[in-house]
Amino acid sequence: MEVNLEIKQGYSYHIKDSFFSNVQDASLMSNKDDGNYRPHYYAVKDSKNADIFWMIPISSKVEKYKKIQNHKIKKSGKCITIVIGLFAGKERAFLIQNAFPINAAYLDHIHTISGSPVTIHKSLDNELRTKLKEAIAIMKNGKKIFYADIAKILEIIRR
């Protein structure tokens, strides 16, 4: 009998390979083939369904995403799809554009360093939750903002 990991707001997690094989969405940032669990994902609780969390990939390719972020800011005055912030003492890119919903059945383990779960600063957590909520609202208004097929993923995780 498989036990589901409890998901907590404010922590990052690694996702089971079974999620990626069940969903089969090429736009998802899946686990690397070398046996490492990368990337890891920051968890944000869904505002409407307590069993669903939105997973935001965390990338070390900060310079790449800063350029994209700056381009979006120049073009439209803001960028809600990429947030640059500190994670485990290092600057990282939080990729809201690559976020997707998940439930506890697909979580493998919480991300730790030296055995301690890694958290982020409250202000970064607030910024991520606010921008994710805005992105979800844009999606619900019919505009494609996420790379993944969110409707398909929701259908799969609700089975």
How does this model look, in words?
With 159 residues, this protein is of the alpha+beta class. The protein has helices spanning 17-23, 62-76, 122-140, 150-157; strands spanning 12-15, 40-45, 53-59, 82-87, 90-95, 100-102, 107-110, 112-113, 116-117. It has a single domain (11-59, 94-158), classed as Thiol Ester Dehydrase, Chain A. Helices cover 31% and strands 25% of the residues. The strands form 2 sheets. Strands 1, 2, 3, 4, 5, 6 and 7 form a 7-stranded antiparallel β-sheet that branches. The relative contact order is 0.21. The mean pLDDT is 87. InterPro entries: CptIN-like (IPR058108), Type_III_TA_endoRNase (IPR053735).
**Total helical elements:** 4
| Main structural class | alpha+beta
What does the main sheet amount to? 7 strands, antiparallel
Helix content: 25-40%
Helices and strands, in N-to-C order?
EHEEHEEEEEEHH
Please, what is the average pLDDT? 87
Q: Any idea what the radius of gyration is?
A: 15 Å
The CATH topology assignment is Thiol Ester Dehydrase, Chain A
CATH class: Alpha Beta
Total beta-strand segments: 9
Which geometry do the CA atoms define? globular
Uncertain runs with pLDDT below 50, 5 residues or more?
none
- Number of discrete domains: 1
CATH architecture assignment name: Roll
